[in-house]
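Predicting holo structure, alpha-D-glucopyranose bound.
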Amino acid sequence: MKSLHTTSLFAASLLACASTVALAQSQPWTDTSKPADQRAAAAVAAMTLDEKLGLVMGYTDPEQLVKEPDDIVSPAIKADVKANHIKGSAGYIAGIPRLGIPAQWQTDASIGVRVTGMERTALPSSLATAASFDPKVTEAGGIMIATEARASGFNVFLAGGGNLAREPRNGRNFEYTGEDPLLTGRMTGGLINGIQSQHMVSTMKHWAVNDQESQRTTVDATISKPAMRQSDLLAFEMIYDLSNPGSVMCSYNLLNGDWACENDYLNNRVLKQDWGFKGYVMSDWGAVHSSAKAANAGLDQFTGYPCCGHHGAFFSAKTLKADIENGAIPMSRIDDMAERILWPLFAKGVVDNPVKVGPIDFEADANVSQKAAEASLVLLKNAGNLLPLTGVKSIAMIGGHADKGVMAGGGSSGVTPVGGNAVPGLEPKTWPGPVVFMPSSPVEALKAAKPEATISYISGDNIKKAAALAKTSEVAIVFVTQWMGEGIDNPLELPGNQDALVAAVVKANPKTIVVVESGGAILMPWAGKVPAILEAFYPGARGGQAIASILTGKVNPSGHLPISFPASNAQLAHAEIPGFHKPDGIRVGITYDEGAAIGYKWYDVKGYKPLFAFGHGLSYTTFATSAPVATADGPNDVSVGGSVTNTGSVAGAAVMQVYISPDNWQAAGWEAPKRLVAFQKAELAPGQGQNFTAKVDPKLLATYDETTDSWVVKGGIYHVRLGQASDDLPQSVDITLPDSRWSAVH
Ligand code: GLC
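Done. Tokens:
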């Protein structure tokens, strides 16, 4: 005889099952056994036009929104945004409770949750973690920031910065993952995978060729289709292949004369037709310049209204409705827009795993950030093995607010640190400021790590005093900083008198180490005189501890440069950036004649020797790589690899890099003599070796033919080279490839 309890449980589960079945029949999109695109189509089929348009319009800044005319933004929408937009966050799109469709709460960005007044955990900059050459690092980072985002009420992450560092002075290079398409594809792809594994939608941004910040909302980038397909778009294609982002954010700039958010070639032809993208294109905030043209050119969500000099009547539910009624936008396009927005909400588990505010384990999250930094910092120089600091009794630490914290970048990716800004009040205080220092002091961390040493800090404002302290210390460590922020490009020279400070300190004490906290590449006129240089980029919430761990040898540095460091401005592809440091809003154009020859490729074409090469990074141990191994059964079946051995006395991690060069790169139609085609990080104990093989993405062996929308490989001999940097490739083997061609359509 079943107990009453069991029977009632059984009855309850039957009832629940029956109601689920009933719901699945009445609302088939709730059936989790169905594929996401079917669920999206079923939900849209049940929607009114207003509900569809409610998905298409995205809002921000309720205080500004309420001032909009009621016929542009209805009172009901104003009330909803005012009630439900998370204050200080990027954006909000109302849900459809009638259909069980959740609201979309949007937060920035790739480095962590950025909400004014909300203290959250910052990863190292994306350029920093790219230097780890380990997608597991960026994936772990994506998981961490996504758990913080969901615990803060967000289900859409405006992350996945993947613009190539075409322009080393680009003020947002710190938000991106360097100059190479494969590295960017794997590192940014790792971040997006981490984020989306937590039932969030991530963007991939900024689509596309948004490669300078000067005049970012008006600059017209001109580049040939093959060149962009083999560079900027190849990077995004690799991110897309590896992470399937739910959304793509089109950028502010024009591309070949058309605004990116109404660029049919980018959004319809490449992204949706060639690549088969099933998610949605959202605009950058204020990057919309039309209603019908944008919608028909592939824009799916008009986001961030009324931010950033909005265009008023250009886009709103009213204008879209009018364009539907006058036939400028087919109803089928509106349905497609709504379905594309819903697809990732189902596919990434947002609908089935509703976001809910909850506690955050900041200690655990800070540890994730510190581990990421420790895997990323790049030891650029270490003459005489000055590092690690063992047995040193007195250390002068100079400049860079090292007694307080470590620098972070500004703009929409700027995270307010737990514990607050360690150095408040620095200029610029307003957008894209404030200038934030993470409260993680290298001085305090080094003191904790080396209690036996006498460690003195001085600001470096008075160069004479700093040099005097250096002179009386065994070792001097100078911290130099270069602040970068959204909307601004930077000269490569360090600001202020930092170069003079370094020169004076190393003159006073030859045992000088320079720690660089920069957004990207910088010029180092003192590099020849300074025995040790550690590139920390923006090292994140626990950057001070990470720097100390590496300086003391607790952690063996294993970062490698994701971006070339020029020896001088003369090595840059463009002497000037159009509109550089001019007031915003000037219509400028830039033609990228270098094409796909970005970074090390440019240096190879020009025969330049950079100060530090792409892929460069030292260790406290030594590694030896074997001859490369390569097999080729046609361009679509090329595998490369080899092995590396730790030939030193301490454990460390090597980064094996494989580059391929056609025997005649011009005849093969390549943009440059060599391309990175594979890389692998390997943690090795002394004496330990590790093999690796990797399949080469055939697009990395090809050129793009726009007349046939296909990839083409020129038959012939190709040299496969294995090493530990783009300028350290000791051995090579040859493979022979046949002529080949295949469609660019996925
Ligand atoms: C900004 C940025 C973009 C960000 C968005 C929302 O202008 O370009 O990266 O996600 O607006 O803050």
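The longest strand covers residues 652-662.
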